[in-house]
Amino acid sequence: MKRPPLLNLAAIAGVILAVALIGIRNVQGNSSYQILNVSYDPTRELYSSLNTRFISLYQQQTGIRLAIEQSHGGSSRQARSVVSGEQQADVVTLGLYPDVDALRRNGLVADGWAARLPNHSQPYYSTIVFVVRKGNPKHIHDWPDLVASGVEVVTPDPRTSGNGRLSVLAAWGAVTTRGGTEASARDYLRSLYAHVTRLDAGARGAANTFTVEKVGDVQLAWENEALREVADAPGDLELVYPPVSILAEPVVAWVDANVARHHTERYARAYLTFLFSDAAQRIIAEAGYRPFNAAIAREFAGRLPPLNLFPVTAIARDWDDADHRFFDENGILATLPGRSVASGPDSGRG
Predict the structure, then answer these.
(1) Cα 255 to Cα 208, 252, 259, distances in angstroms
(2) What domains lie within the chain, and their CATH numbers?
């Protein structure tokens, strides 16, 4: 059998190699044009709007059309899923500082991550408010009203949810920042959780329990979630601002270990930097979150009125200290007399 000329074999091999390399580049290119944002429970609508705007702007500026996937759940549970590798997040936009810092402690995010973006990586802030039934039949206006006879409370589980943890901290601070002792605050927390009728895994689950299943008399909710619920059920629900509540400070970060693996760091950086732009800050305010940009916050003062919010430093040294003090295995929540919301198989820090 006559062999083909050696030159032809080399040419054929070259064509095959070129086609293979093109295929590899296409696969790598397609994968590198996608990032995953692992976020906390009630931010679905917010990031859907932000993503649409960012994708359009980024394509205009670079010619690259990104795909941004979203994942939502209880903030502490989401953090654990990234630490375990279950979710390969390029960016995290979580409800609590300790949830993001857990990634640093596990080698996924660089030291000093909070200083890499403006405002200590906090593009917006929020708080915990009350959602009640039409006409507020149980006359719920302040934290002590939650423990009145016959009141049923809905709040997410502090083992899995940022909303749940913030509700604990807000309730405690509502006592101690107004002159009450820590012993009184412990007694109040015990009474409050004796009135809790459902502990859902996250904020959106609690919202569905309260609004769809119509369980409970009052829901402890993120302000943005409360605004959404009231708007979606006109005439059925009311938002009540208690006289005092906690300053909630959600934070964002790119996940260094994952963006290095995915070759997506420049996209992740651009995406998170966008959150601090005027365009994004207005979208944030429209969605019921309080933008860090004071001038834009003033534009939305009618929707987001000034509030009396205490910082975490009013009840602990910082967010890490609050996390350990209240939610560790032997923390305040786990050692409350009587019913404990921190027992069970899913207890543990987020």
Answers:
(1) 31, 10, 6
(2) 26-124+249-299 (3.40.190.10), 128-247+307-327 (3.40.190.10)
